[in-house]
Specification:
The protein has eleven helices and twelve strands. It is an alpha/beta fold.
Length: 345
Amino acid sequence: MTTVLLGPVRRAGALAGEVRRLREAGVVDGSARIATITAGWQEWEDQPRPEVAELARLGERVVDLGLYHRAERVWAADPELAAAHHEHQRRLRLLRRSYNLRLEQAADAWLGLERLDDGGGVIAGELASACEAVQALDRHHLGRIAALRAEFEERWRPVERLAAAGERAEIERALDGVGLVLVAGGHVPLLLNRLRLFDLAPLLAERSVVAWAGGAMALAERVVLFHDSPPWGPGHAEVGEAGLGRVRGVVVLPDGGRRLRLRDPARVARLARRFAPDACLVLDPGARVEWRDAASTGVAEGVQRLGAEGSVAAAEAVAPPGAAAAGGAPAGGVPATGGPAGGAP
């Protein structure tokens, strides 16, 4: 099934144009309906934004799966599960605070070593070790998240409980005849929470998916939260959550042109090295990458890839979404084309 990742959708007609493009290419049957997942918009889920509302005005048959409000009904009907879920979220928040305390120290140490480096190679080993320490912490954090989630799922089996099972059955019926699912962004951890609550991954696997901004992040193996110039804090990128893993070997960075200091080669290099061998892909408005199936190379348009030497280059092709990262070579794509971004640090 086809997977398309987009940057933020801000231009009028952009989402409708994407749907039309896929229909004309034969990816989506002309009679197939479209489903939307907008749970990341939280309580505003049932208030379609212009990019989605436009589809209906153009004659598309669109159904929103209503995952956010379905979850609210589950909590109301199953207080025991609601309390268990609340406690699970509390534990995850505590885990995140613990991770961030350790991340700040490890990332600051790496940055401090870079400032000491005189280019003579004396502390090259220390720099590599500092990078590895941050990578190890990221892996540990994802492992702990997975362990807590497995414990919760094993104990409570949410989708098998009466209230959640009823809602999922309704979702399955709503997806009957749907050939394309559109996944919006917003609050990415909450979006993933609702997708998992109703075990949507198997249902999405049977259909083509277009996801934009935070929705694109949710389809990757790991969700990286990033901002090089936040209102407060040091601006260290954070591995916030495990994604659905529909697309592997890439780190999705929506709106990176605005949120990252792409003219700072040192910062670009740290980000690329930290998440290697995955490819760090910047998806600004208008950018897209499309995979026709799990074995095909993705075709990228307007996508930039961060290089371990600090470059920012146009990516024209991206490795198959089912390709696992392996070895020391970049797993996220065919070597990018183009040169480094200009400008002073």
